[in-house]
Amino acid sequence: xxxxxxxxxxxxxxxxxxxxxxxxxxxxxxxxxxxxxxxxxxxxxxxxxxxxxxxxxxxxxxxxxxxxxxxxxxxxxxxxxxxxxxxxxxxxxxxxxxxxxxxxxxxxxxxxxxxxxxxxxxxxxxxxxxxxxxxxxxxxxxxxxxxxxxxxxxxxxxxxxxxxxxxxxxxxxxxxxxxxxxxxxxxxxxxxxxxxxxxxxxxxxxxxxxxxxxxxxxxxxxxxxxxxxxxxxxxxxxxxxxxxxxxxx
Amino acid sequence: xxxxxxxxxxxxxxxxxxxxxxxxxxxxxxxxxxxxxxxxxxxxxxxxxxxxxxxxxxxxxxxxxxxxxxxxxxxxxxxxxxxxxxxxxxxxxxxxxxxxxxxxxxxxxxxxxxxxxxxxxxxxxxxxxxxxxxxxxxxxxxxxxxxxxxxxxxxxxxxxxxxxxxxxxxxxxxxxxxxxxxxxxxxxxxxxxxxxxxxxxxxxxxxxxxxxxxxxxxxxxxxxxxxxxxxxxxxxxxxxxxxxxxxxxxxxxxxxxxxxxxxxxxxxxxxxxxxxxxxxxxxxxxxxxxxxxxxxxxxxxxxxxxxxxxxxxxxxxxxxxxxxxxxxxxxxxxxxxxxxxxxxxxxxxxxxxxxxxxxxxxxxxxxxxxxxxxxxxxxxxxxxxxxxxxxxxxxxxxxxxxxxxxxxxxxxxxxxxxxxxxxxxxxxxxxxxxxxxxx
Lengths: 249, 439
Ligand SMILES: Nc1ncnc2c1ncn2[C@@H]1O[C@H](COP(=O)(O)OP(=O)(O)O)[C@@H](O)[C@H]1O
Ligand SMILES: [Mg+2]
Fold this sequence. Notes:
Chain A is of the alpha/beta class.
């Protein structure tokens, strides 16, 4: 279970998160919706352990323990996974090499045996197929020359491979066409389970037709201002974010 | 005017007078001239423009004693091979072992099919065949101090003549070995006359049998005939208090295809200097490398690509990783002579700084006297990108490993240029070890 308590975060003296309280119990999928600039990505980065942020108040507990003092890689080992809004390109690091390194690092940190290359290849290629990731993509530099949709599928592939207990998806739907959205959503839904918590961040209701949430939170100006069930997403779709501080487009 | 000579300079001047190699009259004249040049120039220092960033007058305080000429030294091929990095000895090649500057015939495989001649410098000079006569003159007449010093003090070396059309079935691997008690100096030379349409690969490696510093001065002269293909790969495994001065001069004939790659791993002070002249049209030269430096290592790469013919291509890509107080120098000059139209020159040097105290000095220059050319150069200096690092860590990869991956990705772009798979693998492994050894 993820518990965020009265979380205040600043960047360069500017207050971004202004007291977030949020609980995502095991087995549940929660969505966070909100206008651009409301602090959604900041929240996801802070949970993942990016160190550009100053936490001035509050705490983040994962399975009952504070993770604030943990390095990003230790958080991954403990089960936290963030699928990035903007996956990063790393030329010169082959995607396959990267995935092997990541999987074995996490296995090692979890006290599991490292996987030998043949088992590793089988595992990666199998899951890649489920997400329609072409074998050719695994040979290329990480995310280099990938389309927006390919990058997002690659994020979900990594998520599936690292077997997290907490999945945070930051605008995984942005830049996806309807077919890609379906593939990605199926990939995510396949990971839903009684032992897993999910936090799905999105600007649009559309994604939530595919990944149906247990709860929807609305974030505005660094605060959770409303919480409801999946119907709340439909209301937002109809009314827009105007009442939450975003100009009607 | 009285010139103050350092102790090292005085020793080197004395050496230049005492150590002339046996040979024909023309060589004696060359050596005399070179000796006089070195005597008047002394070691290069910061007021010599080309040596501004690599001041040997202050960097090389002592001149190590000259190593015993190879013939008298008892060395086994196995001991030499054991000093090579893993995998390099296994790369099938004609091994040419140069012990303390002199080609050791007994340890070397000089019988090569297809009429290829491999001679020790001494034998080549004694035979005084026509093809050896350009030796010393492939370099420009205005030799710098280090070129002059090599010519004046060379102990030996390897002379190779590849006949027209000969395609070697495996590379020539010239292994420069230094041995002896304590620090030693060596001066040696490579001279290659490569015939038209020949195909030659040269692996050049430098090792020391003892864990002792070496001052080496290596000169290479390469005459590459029309449509010949020549690959040259270099690795130095020097002690970290060494001084390695290498200087390569090439004359490229029409439509030649020349490729050079070097991996520099620390090794104290090093300078690799190139002067490539395109004599024939439509030739290609690709000179690239990677350097990984820590401690107080200082690596200088200086090159001049002299386009004297039309339609030639030059490509340079250098990647340097610098940690601690290491320093790297990149000086690259592309000259396009009048009339050398359709020249296509591209030079890039990138440095990755892992420490605030490391320094990268870059001086790219273009001297263009023709109008229809495409020339560019660039140099970048950067640090590890924190966003890339976070991305890797957010996938469970610990910081140390994540940094290693990013560093590998950085120099990997250059190492990919090594065509010989076995040599490339050796270099990658050496480079990866360099990093893991230090962190
Ligand atoms: N590293 C940063 N430096 C300065 N401002 C930042 C930084 N990261 C985010 N912000 C600011 O914080 C606010 C929230 O941004 P973000 O979390 O990306 O919002 P969202 O994901 O909801 O669009 C924005 O005003 C943004 O400009
Ligand atoms: Mg965002």
